[in-house]
Specification:
about 210 residues, alpha/beta, eight-stranded parallel barrel, 8 helices, magnesium, ThiamineP_synth_sf
Length: about 210
Amino acid sequence: MNCDNKKLLLYAVTDRFWLGSESLRSQVEKALEGGITFLQLREKELEENRFLQEAIVIKELCKRYHVPFVINDNVNIAMAMDADGVHVGQNDMEAVNVRQLIGPDKILGVSAQTVEQAVLAEKQGADYLGVGAVFPTGSKADAEDVSYETLKAICKAVTIPVIAIGGISKDNIMELAGSGICGIAVISAIFAQPDIVNATAELKELTKKMVIK
């Protein structure tokens, strides 16, 4: 599946840490209403069967809003419920192996922290790269920092789209202008907000400005 830059403008990653009394479905629907352009379902603790059931529900929601839907790490789940694709990190399955499993038509996203990792991921069949953490983040305690210079160098070294991730908020997003990224991936900047719809809409407008600066 072709992964165009517009679809990667505002990429939301789920995290049930922020659910409170809400359901994940409800939070995701609000984010879709607010204008996210891509969704990654990230579940590190959920039992496989529950993960699969949840993935099916979220996929249907995303379909209704014409938003691509990928699964974090779990290739088996992604294939079982026919997700639009998979996103893998550096410590997960090699991108080349994931591509062989999911075939040429599914989206493959890969996390990268260095130019070398980025170039290799593109060679191995990645459709886009998630680069970070560009700012300190609480969502991934083990995330290594990536400087603005490295982010820019990665964007220049590859031909596939690059999005930045890690600690991005409405307060620091403009610091990423001019780096060459086509969008941002966020968790708490959407899902930790009291008004998810408005927070998403505001972030989307800021991202549009940042990308064209």
